Amino acid sequence: MRSNGSSERYTAEEIGERDGWLCGLCQDPVARTYRHPDPRSPSIDHIRTIVAGGTDTRDNVRLTHWGCNHERNDNTPLRTTEEAEERRAVLLRIPTLRAYAASLTAEDMVRSSQAFHSPERYQAKLAHRVERYKREKR
Ligand SMILES: [Zn+2]
Predict the structure, then answer these.
(1) What is the pLDDT along the chain (138 residues), one digit of tens a residue?
(2) What range(s) does the HNH nuclease domain occupy (predicted)?
């Protein structure tokens, strides 16, 4: 059981059906036949991370490739300059990051966050992971 927030019972199969077996990060199809630790295997991503107070409920999860989920880690896209300013305020309180945070504009932060979370970038990263996985399996 998760300690914070609510949770409900759901299965990866059910979320996969709901999401049309498309990855919520790279937008490519997810095949059910792959099994962990294959980076192409199906996995459940928490849109608002549990650490950030997200719930383990259907409305907060989506189907992703395991590799895309791993690539995302706990990084959440910045959508507005207000969100960027909030994140920057956090960075400014960390002495080693203060100068870096002060050099960024909110617009830059939103732009680089959007680039980080682009489907094309996730597709490229997943292709790399699959390549490495196949190489190591041999
Ligand atoms: Zn993916």
Answers:
(1) 444 567 899 999 999 999 999 999 999 999 999 999 999 999 999 999 988 889 999 999 999 999 999 999 988 899 999 999 999 999 999 999 999 999 999 999 999 999 999 999 999 999 999 999 999 987
(2) 10-70
Ligand 1 centre distance from Cα of residue 34 (Å): 13
Ligand 1: centre distance to CA 99 (Å)? 34
Spell out a b/e string for 18-28, using b for 16 or more CB atoms within 10 Å of the CB, else e: ebeeebbbbeb
How many whole angstroms from 6 Cα to the centroid of ligand 1? Answer: 27
Q: Does a structural domain hold residue 28?
A: yes
Provide DSSP, 14-40.
HHHHHTTTB-TTT--B--TT--TTSTT
CA 72–ligand 1 middle distance (angstroms): 10
Q: How far is the CA of 68 from the centre of ligand 1 (A)?
A: 5
- Predicted TM-score (pTM) of the model is 0.85
| Inside any domain, residue 122 | no
